[in-house]
Structure formats: structure tokens, C-alpha cells
Amino acid sequence: MRKLIVLQGVASVTVLVILAVLVLLAPYVSPYVWDDVVGGVWDPVSMVNWLGTDNLGRDMYSRLLYAGRVTLFVALASTVLSLVIGTTVGLFAAVKGGWVDTVLSRLVDAMMSIPTLIFALVILSILGTSTPVLIATIAVLDSTRVFRLTRAMAADIVVLEYFEAALLRRDSVFRLMFVEVLPNILSAKKTEFGLRFCNNFLEIASLSFLGMGIQPPLTDWGSMVRDNATIISFGGIAPLIPATAIAVVTIAVNLIVDWTLESGSRHAQ
Length: 269
What we know:
Order of helices and strands: HHHHHHHHHHH
CATH topology: MetI-like fold
Largest sheet: none
Radius of gyration: 22 Å
Strand content: under 5%
Number of strands: 0
CATH architecture: Orthogonal Bundle
């Protein structure tokens, strides 16, 4: 079983590295510019258009690579920001305790009581759908999950003797948070990063499919699914191409997380 998990992890890393390289080198490896009309509407797969064309006659392969840059960047940026916000606030709540912890925890509970996708749609409808607003919205909403886990782990640490000694030394709150507590939960944070990335990745794709995510002239994989959705009723595969890319990235990251957890448990033994 362990060998299978390791094999899946190595294969997933390989797939993600290849995909990342293709996406980053999109201007050099794609046969066309992402918004060039190069054929008819929904042309089939051919030597000229490796994955066919989309609803406007643009090359699907080229658009897939360019859209991947936007998709992965937005997902990565929102994940990093959510971890920074959630971890900082979670550590602060655990270290301060008392009414500060209570107020922050109840505020997070209130935010988590509203489905994330609906909450995001409301915020984006009010503030607009620019890329910075999209990243900030996803990050803030996802940081509530990060907060809960961080606070729970930090709460087990702030009752230990070495932390009590730091309090007696009258260390600053900053030092208590980032020197005494954070290093002891970093291993769990590595795993959480993968899980949060998958969640944000799918949230962004969902919002784009609903028309509230990445806006033209930019495009992402969720937008590509939406733009080509109608052809599925006639047996076309155009929307399945970006949908497959979304599934591959999500599955690969989850398998890497499983591999990380397996490696961590083996080292703990």
C-alpha cells in the first residue's frame, strides 16, 4: 500500500511539473496566440489544431496553456494569502485567549455558516469581478478554515510548559506567535497548503463557470468550460478538455498530499 502511495505521489509530481513547465512556457510552446481565430467554430481535433477549436474558432490547445497560467496563478495567490491571514489570526487568537479568542472565533463561525460559493458571489456582485478582488475574496473566505485548524493546533501548544516559560519572560505577542508556536505546527501547514489549494482551485473554476470569476479578455479553465458548454449536447468534446485539466490538477495535488501524510506518519514511527 505504501509503495502504491509513493508511486502515485511521484507520478503526480511529474504530471504537475510537466504541466507547470508547459503553462509557464506557453508563449513558446503554443502554436498560436491564445485569442487568435485560426479555424471554424468547434473544428475537430486535427494536425493543425491538436485539441480542436472553441466556440469562436480559437485553438483549444493554445488557450488551455494560456488559461492555465491565469488559473494556477490565481489559485496559488489566493491560497498563499489565505494561509497568511488564517494562520496569523489563528495564532493571535490562541496566544491572546480570553475575549479576543472568543470574538474572533464567533466571527469566523458566522462567516463559515454561509456557503462559501454563495458568499463569494455576493461579495463579487458588490465589489466587482476584477482579478485582485477575486483573489482577496477567495483568500478571506478560505482563511476561516485555516483559522480553525491553526487555532486548534496552537491551543494545544499554549498550555505547554515551555510556552508558560516564554510568558514569564514577557516575550512579545509577535515572538510568542511566530517563534514559540508557529514552528511546531509547520509540518501540518505543508499538508494544509495542498488541501487549501485544491479547494481554492475548484472555487475559482466554479465562479468562472458561473460568470463571476476571471473576466475577458483573460480566461481560465472554468471560463473555457462555460464558453463551450453548449456543444456537449451535440457530442462535442471542447468543454471536456479544460474540465479534464481541472480534474487532473485536483487529483494530482490530493495524491501528493496523501504521499506527504504517508511519509510523515512513517517518519513519526
